Amino acid sequence: MCTLTAKNTITFLIPEKNINMKGHYFSKFDPSKEGKTQFEQLMNLFLQLLTYTSGDVNEALQWLNELDKEYAFTSEEYGMGDFIDDLKDKGYIDENKQTGEIKITPKTEQGIRKRSLEEIFGKLKKTKTGDHNTFKPGLGDETNPETRPFQFGDMLEQIDFTESIRNSQINNGLDGLMQEDDLQIRETDFKSQTSTVLMIDISHSMILYGEDRITPAKKVAMALSELITTKYPKDTLDIVVFGNDAWPVEIKDLPYLQVGPYHTNTVAGLEMGMDILRRRRNPNKQIFVITDGKPTCLKVGKRYYKNSFGLDRKITSRCLNLAAQCKKLKIPITTFMIASDPYLQRFVQEFTETNNGKAFFASLDKLGSFIFKDFESGKRKTLY
To answer: Which residue pairs from 33-41 have beta carbons closer than 8 angstroms and sit at least 24 positions apart in sequence?
Structure first.
């Protein structure tokens, strides 16, 4: 329903249920709500705050209360206490009755990953999404619309009987027998499988200089994990974080990821990534690296060799050697550099040339778009 004012502007009215009486009353349309309930609006903010607080429910709720004071997200009918009760009832948070500690549940962890996926893919609506297609004819599960004549060695399930019977009737008449020349084959495009290792820099510089770089990196990792587990279930994704050392983390642990007082041991991350990919049977393998700084650390035996004052030849040489090894193993490395220092960019370019990989010097807001464009375009690459 709408009304026309004297200034020829249209005001839309939305029916809402009246609690005190039967029927409906009308209020002005609020485009910011987008038809969402108060719980859904608050839930969207809550999931985003959980990413910034590394999964700390108490801190996220405190921030949400502060935002509510300023922007009045709640109302007399639905308050913050109602929202917390709904979180518990719907299985998004779990409270320990003995200690009073509140934690998020696996349902919330998945919700954070889905939100990250939607946020990053929202920037990619006008780009191709990709479907793992190699466009390589052969046995697969993507039907090719075109057919071709039968050849010796073709399998029975590849025969398009509709087209073959049609050819037989045209060539031999209704009473004629089907000949080999009448058979038509409908091919399927083979869909590739890929094993990916995503390396995330969690050194202290990821939160230095007043800039939060770890949160966008976490969002990308969560979005990528949700993409692979839902759209490409046959693929594998392993996430490796690296500081002074490198270690794997589970997808469910991504919201809790934090930086530490670490240097940047890129060598340890690459070695672990290569070791993981050696155990994967998929022929297509790749490594993504998200970092904001130069490699500054190396483990020699039990001792850490560190140098934060410029590029150290001893450290960079090891990095370049590993890049060359990955090239021999046909493991391309794509580096997403969150830094603008010219000397660091030159090192990344040399690293990329050694591996024959790719490098993107991305800003924080463009990081997700770069990663997904590369991931999807790599899937659509024709393989020969």
So the answer is: 38/73, 38/74, 38/75, 38/78, 38/83, 39/78, 39/83, 39/86, 41/73
CA of 159: how far to CAs of 80, 145, 224, in Å? 62, 13, 38
pLDDT digits (tens, 9 = 90+) for 358-369: 888 766 666 666
The pairing of beta strand 303-306 with beta strand 102-104:
unpaired
Residue bearing tokens 């696996």: 106
Measured distance CA(197)–CA(126) in Å, rounded: 27
Amino acid at 274: M
**Beta carbons of 262 and 345 less than 8 angstroms apart:** no
Residues of the chain with CATH 3.40.50.410: 194-379
* Cβ-based neighbours of 38, under 8 Å, separated by 6 or more: 73, 74, 75, 78, 83
* Interval 1-10: pLDDT, tens: 444 444 444 4
CATH code linked to domain 194-379: 3.40.50.410
CA distance 171 to 383: 37
Digit-coded pLDDT (tens) for 49-94: 998 888 899 999 999 999 999 988 899 999 999 999 999 999 999 9
